[in-house]
Amino acid sequence: MGFLAGKKALIVGLATDRSIAWGIAQAMKREGAELAFTYQNDRIKDRVVDLATQLGSKIIMPMDVSLDEEIDTAFQGLGSAWDGLDIIVHAVAFAPREALTGGFVDATTRENFRMAHDVSSYSLTALARAGAPMMAGRAGALLTLSYLGAVRSVPAYNVMGLAKASLEANVRFLAADLGPRGIRSNAISAGPIKTLAAAGIPGFRKMLHHVANAAPLRRNVTTDEVGNVAAFLCSDLASGITGEVVYVDAGYSQVGMSFEE
Ligand code: 0WE
Q1: Distance, CA 175 to ligand 1 centroid (Å)?
Q2: Ligand 1, atom 20, residue with closest C-alpha
Q3: Is this structure's pTM higher than 0.85?
Q4: Residue 241, CA atoms < 13 Å, CB-side half-sphere
Q5: DSSP string of 78-120?
Q6: What's the pLDDT score for residue 200?
Q7: Nearest-CA neighbor of 81 among 111, 50, 37?
Q8: What distance separates the 2 farthest-apart alpha carbons in the chain?
Q9: What is the distance between the alpha carbons of residues 17 and 194, in angstroms, rounded to a whole number?
Q10: Would you state the pLDDT for residue 67?
Q11: 10 Å Cβ neighbour count for 98?
């Protein structure tokens, strides 16, 4: 029996079969979880429905995390299908494209800042508030995805770094606030992965090569590797871990210098 047998998980942020959310969904399914999905808009609906169906999921709902009404409607839908909820995976981030090119000061407008923080950080608080009632009496787990740019400057990551710093603080405040109700809150800080979100970023291939050359494991990480750690963190195997940021990055964040061999 898998270590997530009997668990019900909501996955927010699936877009394609290269999404980190897809690696997480597959690992959770393999370990016995039952899955529900949301999709951002009609443009990606068919693809998400197809992927969710592959994992035997019948609960697939629209939800734009920047709209409170859509969050409420999705959790109403979930509440009518399931009698409880164990896991929420938050795999959502957005900053306007122009915020992720060039220098930080020039690229960061008030509106870019607002949008990045709203979609990439506030949405975790919003999902926690909406989902916590369904987690009552169960060992609930929240999981989000961060990146090294939260704690180190990374060229062009710009305002997304500030938003990820906020997201990591969010994880800690949720852990403190919801811990007494038995709900844990953690993040995975993943190394760079070529997802749809990353595809349009100039120089992303160079970043992948840089990390692969410097990381102790001398390679990039995969969505499967992130998925396995996500499944663990949301399982009872991790019942003592909350408020934590776990790096799944082939060790890149832990070296101060590295020479190619
Ligand atoms: O968090 C991210 C990227 C998230 C992201 C990606 C996009 C591209 C399309 C957020 N917003 C947008 N907006 C768009 O219009 N990563 C960890 C991947 C990433 O993105 C970077 C990176 C890395 C790594 C951008 C610049 C530099 C490094």
Answers
A1: 26
A2: 198
A3: yes
A4: 18
A5: HHHH-S---EEEE------GGGGSS-HHHH--HHHHHHHHIII
A6: 84
A7: 37
A8: 56
A9: 11
A10: 98
A11: 13
Task: Tell me how far apart the terminal alpha carbons of the chain are, to the nearest angstrom.
Answer: 42
What pLDDT shows up at residue 45? 98
156 lines ligand 1 (CB under 6 A): yes
Q: What phi and psi, each to the nearest 5 degrees, are found at residue 36?
A: -125, 150
Upper half-sphere CA count for residue 37 (Cβ side, 13 Å): 30
Is the sign of the CA dihedral 74, 28, 14, 122 positive or negative?
A: positive
Residue positions annotated with a catalytic role: 147, 157
Side by side, which strands form the sheet with 59-62?
Answer: 59-62, 34-39, 8-12, 87-90, 141-146, 184-190, 245-248
Given a cut of 70, the residues of the chain with pLDDT beneath it are: none
Q: Which atom of ligand 1 is nearest to the CA of 195?
A: 18
- Take residue 171 and report the two structure tokens written for it: 């994880």
Closest Cα to atom 6 of ligand 1: 197
Residues for the chain: how many in total?
261
Q: Which atom of ligand 1 lies at the shortest distance from residue 99's CA?
A: 13
The dihedral built from the CA positions of residue 223, 229, 80 and 118, taken in this order, carries a sign that is negative
* pLDDT at 68 (0 to 100): 98
